[in-house]
Structures are given as C-alpha cells and as structure tokens.
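Query structure, 391 tokens:
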C-alpha cells in the first residue's frame, strides 16, 4: 500500500485549486477552495494515525507531531462543509431578495403607534373644558388642568421644549410663557420679546430643544420671530412677508410659513441659518390653516380660510411643488393639528368635528375619518400623553 500526501498552493487570482489526498484505502478525496478563503497553505497529511505508523516512524510509534498532522484532513473536510452551508445561505438570501422590502415594511407597520394607543390632552379656550381624547374615538374623558385664569390658553401658541408643553402669548397675557408641569400651568419669569396676542405660531425646532415663535395680529409683529430655549428668548430673522395666521411647519427640516390673513397673499417662505428665502407660492390666498411636517421632508397644509370661506383642501408641498392630495370631511380653519404614528389629528373651529387623517408607511394619504366632536373648540392646545393623564 502506498500512502502519500501531495502539497499544493493556492492558485492565482480568480482560480480554484485542488488538493489530491490519497488515503490508506487509495480513495482520492477532492477538496476545492475558493480564492481568498485559503491562500498559500502547504498541506502535508495522511488519512489517519496508521498512515504515520507505517510510513513516518521506523519505531512504528505515533509522535506528537504525527497527531497534529493527522487532524489536517478533518479540518479540510470541516471547511468544505462550511462552504456548502454558506452557499446554501447565499442562495436563500438571493431567492428572498424580492420580498425582503415587504417583510421589513410589515415589521415597521407593527411598530407604528396605532390610534387605539393614542391619547391626546386637549386644552381649549376655556381651560376647565379640557379633556383627554383617544385616537380611535372610543373615549373622551374630562381632564383637570390648573391655570391662573380660565381663559389662560385662549389664542396662545404652543410647542414642546425639552419634552414639556409650553404656551406663548394669547389674549390673557400677550407676552407670557408658561410651562405645563403635570396638570398645572406655571408661568415663567422669562417673557416674549414681542406682544403676540393672536395670529402667531410656535414650532419645536432643533430636535425639540427650542421653540420658534413668530408673527402676530398687527403692525410689524406680523413679520417678527424669536427663539426660546427653555430659559431665555432671543430675536431672530424677520420674514420677508407678513404671516398673520400663516402658521409654522417644517419643510425639509426647516421652519416655513404660508399666506397671511390681513394681506391675503400666497407667499410661502422658509427659514435657514442665514434668513428667510422664498418657496413656491401656494395656489390660493390662504390663512388659518395647519402646517404639518411629514418624515419624507414634505409639508402638508390642511384646511384654512380663503376669501372668507373655510377650506377643506389637503395640500402637500413636496419637491418644490404644491399638489392637492385630498380633502377634509368638514371644511375648517383656526385649527390645531398633531401628527402621531401615521395619523394627523385635526381639531378645527368652524365645525366641532375631530378628524383623523391616516397615512401608510410611505406617508401617502389613505383615509380621512371623523372620530368625534369637540365639546369646546377654538384652536386648542394639543399634547400627546397617557390614558390617565390628569383625569
């Protein structure tokens, strides 16, 4: 019986190499290797310990070196099995590649907040009429909110700063800033730089660390803006156009405003680090609408007032173009809206209807549904919370 082991080196790039190992039983074992898996490796082994007893050692004994070398073939066989497993896994991935995006989308859908899990604290013009509204419309429960006066939130703009709801200006005190701590509004010592009684707007910016407060009901204040960081207020760029009741929303992650009640124009603008720049005009001379940012960098304009008539249009500014993508069940203006999960909850003034706009994972409008009626309306403060907040 002839026992031998042949030595081979890995072949050049993009080639296979083959090792021929002749065992005791003269069985030829072929093991193929791919480039970059094993390179420049010398193989010197026999099939088993008896090979070395018969051919490597005159004393017919097995040395430690023999034992190490006899494991060579087993390792090669193990690597060969691993290659087969990898090949099978690659084949499975290739076969599943067309449906992987659908699987991921389904997983994302299950993670999206469902309306039945949504609860919104609604603080209307009269604070003692506050209530907790469920996202699916199944419940509406009175909530107790404490404030210095019952009209404390009337016409106040609102925004989250560092996770806390803040209100700015309004009829009760047009320069006040107050924070909602648990169930109580606490007025801060810091004040707004401008008197903002009505027609102004507030927007969370810089990932919720600050609020931008702009515009108002009269004179030059219709163009002015300031930034609140939780403890101080600083004036910032004034807009090129007046935007009384023009609202604030995010377009491409930058603040934007559209239209004006007093001057009744179509102008839209966006605020960057260097000032305000023009956006495409809205098709209508519109005001008193809601501006809502979507995650796809577009911005929606919902409802509003044009030529003294309430509007039902749902408009989208995307890729520098305005398009009407749907309409409300009830035309409305002087409103509040909040985006939670994949739904926008819209609370208007002209109609008591609470309307929910549902979107799919691609943020395409799917449905508009009325989920209830407001017991007390007029531009309420909206705050997402838990099911038993202040009840």
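Result returned for the query:
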């Amino acid at each position: 019986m002839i026992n031998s082991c042949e030595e081979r080196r890995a072949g050049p790039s993009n080639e296979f190499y083959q090792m021929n190992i002749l065992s005791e039983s003269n069985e030829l074992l072929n093991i193929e290797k791919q480039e970059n898996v094993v390179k420049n490796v010398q193989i010197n082994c026999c099939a088993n310990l008896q090979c070395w007893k018969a051919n490597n050692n005159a004393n017919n004994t097995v040395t430690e070196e023999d034992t190490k070398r006899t494991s060579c073939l087993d390792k090669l066989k193990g690597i060969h099995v691993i290659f087969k497993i990898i090949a099978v896994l690659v084949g499975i991935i290739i076969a599943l590649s067309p449906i992987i995006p659908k699987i991921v989308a389904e997983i994302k859908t299950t993670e999206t907040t469902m309306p039945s899990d949504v609860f919104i604290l609604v603080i209307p013009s009269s604070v003692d009429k506050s209530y907790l509204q469920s996202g699916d419309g199944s419940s509406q429960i009175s909530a107790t909110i404490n404030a210095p006066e019952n009209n404390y939130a009337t016409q106040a703009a609102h925004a989250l700063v560092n996770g806390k709801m803040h209100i700015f200006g309004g009829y009760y005190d047009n320069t006040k800033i107050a924070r909602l701590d648990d169930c109580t509004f606490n007025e801060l010592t810091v004040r707004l730089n401008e008197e903002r009684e009505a027609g102004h707007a507030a927007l969370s910016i810089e990932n919720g660390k600050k609020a931008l407060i702009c515009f108002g009901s009269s004179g030059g204040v219709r163009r002015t803006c300031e930034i609140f960081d939780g403890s101080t207020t600083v004036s910032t760029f004034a807009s090129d156009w007046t935007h009384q009741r023009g609202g604030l929303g995010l377009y491409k992650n930058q603040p934007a405003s559209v239209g004006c009640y007093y001057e009744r124009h179509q102008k839209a603008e966006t605020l960057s680090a260097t000032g305000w720049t023009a956006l495409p005009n809205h098709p209508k001379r519109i005001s008193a609408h809601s501006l809502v940012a979507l995650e796809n960098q577009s911005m929606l304009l919902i409802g509003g007032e044009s030529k003294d008539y309430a509007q039902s249009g749902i408009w989208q500014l995307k890729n520098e173009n305005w398009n009407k993508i749907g309409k409300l069940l009830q035309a409305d203006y002087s409103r509040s809206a909040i985006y939670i999960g994949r739904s926008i909850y819209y609370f208007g003034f002209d109609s008591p209807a609470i309307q929910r706009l549902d979107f799919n994972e691609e943020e395409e409008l799917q449905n508009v549904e009325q989920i209830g009626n407001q017991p007390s309306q007029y531009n309420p403060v909206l705050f997402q919370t838990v099911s038993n907040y202040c009840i």
